[in-house]
Amino acid sequence: MTEPVLDVRGVSKRFPGVLALDDVSLTVAPGEVHALVGENGAGKSTLIKILTGVYRPDAGQVHYLGQPVGFGRPLDAQAAGISTIYQEVNLVPLMSVARNLFLGREPRGRFGLIDTARMNREAGEVLARFGITVDPRLPLHSLGLGAQQMVALARAVAVDAKVVIMDEPTSSLEPREVETLFRVVRELSGRGIAIIYVSHRLDELYQLCDRVTVLRDGRRVHTGELAQLDRLSLISLMLGRDVADVRRHGLTGFSAHDAGDVEPILRVRDLTVRHQLHGVSFDVRPGEVTGLGGLLGSGRSETAKAVVGALGADGGTVDMAGRRLKRRTPAGAIRAGMAMLPEDRKAEGIIPGLSVRENIVLAALPRLSRFGVVSRARQDRVVETFMKRLRIKAASPEQKVSELSGGNQQKVLLARWLCLNPRLLLLDEPTRGIDVGAKAEVQALIDELAAEGLAVVLISSDLEELVEGADRIVVLRAGAVVGELSGDDVTEDNIMAALAQEAAHD
C-alpha cells in the first residue's frame, strides 16, 4: 500500500462544554480523493482547522509526508504544501484578481518591487487553465460568487500543493464551472496530489471520491471504499439511523400542499433592472411555495432582492397584500410583511461577533422595546421559543453565532425573520452548504410554514429540492421568465426543457 501523505492518529479537540473531536483517525494516500462527510457539528471543520494550523489538537498527532507536524498557523501549513479551498470565499475583495492569486508570493522585479505586468500576465495564464475568462486586473468583488470561488480554487492549486482540502467547493458554482472543477480534481489526482473533499452533495462524492470517512458527534464511525456504500447507507451512517428509517422518511422534508384558488398575496409585474432583469412577472399565494428556477446568473437572486428593495429597479410594480409598494426599501418590505433569507449567510446574514440571542432578536428589537427601552425578558422569551422550535444546537443563547455549524447558523437567520411573523418569506438557497439532516429539518420547516398559510418563495440550485418543495416553479433565464410549471408538470426534465428551448431560441 502507498505510504500515506497525510496520517491523522487519534486526534481529539475540546472546547468549553463541547468535545468537538474524540479520537479521530484519518489516512489519505497520494492521488486519492477522500470524502469527509457528516452532519453539521460532526467535527469536519474542526479537523480541517487542525490540519491547517488554525487549532492545535489536545491529544493525538498529525503525520505529514511521514513526519509528525504541528503547524502553528495556516501560512505554515500552506508553505508545507497543504492548501485549502473554503466554502465561503476567503480572499481579499478589494484587491485585483491577480493580487489574490499571488498574495504572499508576488513576482518581484528590480529593487524588490512587485512586477505587476508579469503578475497580470501569469495570472491570465493560470485563469485560462481553469476556463476563467476575466481580466486579472479587475477587483475580485466585481466578479460573481461562482467566479470568485474558481479564483480561490486556482490560487489553492497554483502553489506546490501535495494535499488540497476542498470544503463545499461547488456550493456557489454553475454546472459549467462544476465540470471544470471536476476536471481539475481528476488532473490533481493524476499528478499524485491528495484531495480531501467535503461536500453535502452526495452525487458529487460518488462521481469523484475513492474512499470516505464518516464523522458523527466528533467521532469517526466509518472509513472505507465509497463504491461499497449505497446512498441510503451513507446517509444512515451520517445520521445514526437505520437504513429502513431513512428510506421510510425520504431524503427531503417536503410534502405536498395545495393553495387552491386563494388570491395572491404578492403580485410582481414587469420587474426590470438594467442589464439584470427584463420584465419579470409572477404571483405568490398564501400557503404556497413558489420556486424560482434557473441556472446561476439567470436572475433568481436579483428578482428576490428587487422585490424586497435590496436592489433598485428601473421599472415594474410589486403589490403586497393588495397594496402597491411605491418606494421599495428593505425596511418598507419588512413593514409590509416580507422577510428575506439571503444566499450568502456570512456576508449578508449573520453578524459573527454577536451572540445567538442578539442575532435572533436583531430585526425584532423595535417590537420588543417600550419607550426606547428593550426588555431583556421579552428577548429571552422570543429566543427560547425559536431555539426550541427550530432545534438550534448551541451551548447557550449567549454563545457566539460564528461558533455554530452552518446548519445552525441558517436556523438562527430563519428565527430572526420568523419572530417578525412575516406573511411572505423569500428563501435564497436556504439549504446551501448544510448537511442532509439539517437540510431535511429546514425543508420540513418550510413545509410547515406553508401549511400554516405563509407564502414562500424558494430559490435553489438543487433541482431535486426545487421540484420536491415547490408547488409552482417560475423558470428564469438571462433575467427573463421563460416558463412557468405547476402540478404534474413540475419536474426536473421540464425545467431543463424550458431552459434549453429558450437557449435554442437565442
UniProtKB/TrEMBL annotation:
<protein>
    <submittedName>
        <fullName>Sugar ABC transporter ATP-binding protein</fullName>
    </submittedName>
</protein>
<dbReference type="InterPro" id="IPR003439">
    <property type="entry name" value="ABC_transporter-like_ATP-bd"/>
</dbReference>
<dbReference type="GO" id="GO:0016887">
    <property type="term" value="F:ATP hydrolysis activity"/>
</dbReference>
<keyword id="KW-1278">Translocase</keyword>
<keyword id="KW-0472">Membrane</keyword>
<keyword id="KW-1003">Cell membrane</keyword>
<dbReference type="GO" id="GO:0005886">
    <property type="term" value="C:plasma membrane"/>
</dbReference>
<dbReference type="InterPro" id="IPR050107">
    <property type="entry name" value="ABC_carbohydrate_import_ATPase"/>
</dbReference>
<keyword id="KW-0813">Transport</keyword>
<dbReference type="InterPro" id="IPR017871">
    <property type="entry name" value="ABC_transporter-like_CS"/>
</dbReference>
<feature type="domain" description="ABC transporter">
    <location>
        <begin position="6"/>
        <end position="242"/>
    </location>
</feature>
<dbReference type="InterPro" id="IPR027417">
    <property type="entry name" value="P-loop_NTPase"/>
</dbReference>
<dbReference type="Pfam" id="PF00005">
    <property type="entry name" value="ABC_tran"/>
</dbReference>
<dbReference type="GO" id="GO:0005524">
    <property type="term" value="F:ATP binding"/>
</dbReference>
<keyword id="KW-0677">Repeat</keyword>
<keyword id="KW-0547">Nucleotide-binding</keyword>
<feature type="domain" description="ABC transporter">
    <location>
        <begin position="260"/>
        <end position="503"/>
    </location>
</feature>
<keyword id="KW-0067">ATP-binding</keyword>
<dbReference type="InterPro" id="IPR003593">
    <property type="entry name" value="AAA+_ATPase"/>
</dbReference>
